[in-house]
Design a protein that fits this description.
The protein is α+β, with helices and mostly antiparallel strands and about 250 residues long. It contains 4 helices and 8 strands, in the order ααββαββββββα.
Length: about 250
Amino acid sequence: MADAGPETDRMAALEARISELDKRLEQRESELDIRKLQHLYGYLIDKCLYNETVDLFTPDGEVRFFGGVWKGQEGVRRLYVERFQTRFTYGNNGPIDGFLLDHPQLQDIINVQPDGVTAFGRARSMMQAGRHQDYTGGPDNPMLGKRQWWEGGIYENTYKKVDGIWRIHVLNYMPQWHADFETGWAETPPEYVPFPKVTWPTDPTGPDELITDHWLWPTHKLMPFHMPHPVTGEEIVAQRWQGDIDRENAAKKG
C-alpha cells in the first residue's frame, strides 16, 4: 500500500493556505466595507440627511466633537437631529437652497482588529461650507447668516460589526483649522467656533460630557494615531516645541 504521508501533508498545507487566504480576504472585505461606511457618512452629512446619519451608529455609539461627547443613540440623535438639523436647515432632513456643507472623506487608513468585529480608522475631511446671501435667516440664529468658510479636521474612529454589518461605534472628529474664505487661516481667531461650556440637560442639545484637552488653530498639535509606526513598531509621538509650551502657559496665567 502506497505511503499516504506526502499526500496528507500536501493537503494539510493546502487547507492551511486556503484558511489563511480566507482570513485575508475577509479582512480586505471588511476594510472596503468600512471605507464605504465612512465615505457614506460624508455624503449624508453633505446633504444634511441627519436621520440617516444617526442610523449609521451602533446603539451604544458616541460622537466626540468640538469639546464634547454625545453618548448613546439618544445623544447621537441629540447632536445631529436636534442640534445640527435645527440650526442649519430649519429642522428639514435634507439639503435646503443656499446652504453648503461639503464633507469630502480623504486619506482613510483602516485597521481591522484580530477579533474581526472591531476596527479603527483615521481619515481627513476638508470641508467647504457657507450660506448664500439670498438665503439668510433671522438675526437670532448666527448659523443662518451670510457666511463662507473652510474647515480641516481629522477622524480617529472606532467601528463595530453588528449582526454582520459594519457600523460607526465612536466617531471621534477633531477640527484642526478653520478659515473665512475672504481672509484665510492667517487671520483665524483662537476659538473660531465656540466650544460647548455646559452639558445636557442644562443645554438641551448639549453633550453628555465635556472634553478638557480640546484646541483649535492657530494652536497646532498632533491628534494621536490609533496604530504604531508600520516600520519601526513604535508609537507615533510628536515633539512639542518649547516656544509653543511657553506661549500656552503664559496665556493660561494671563
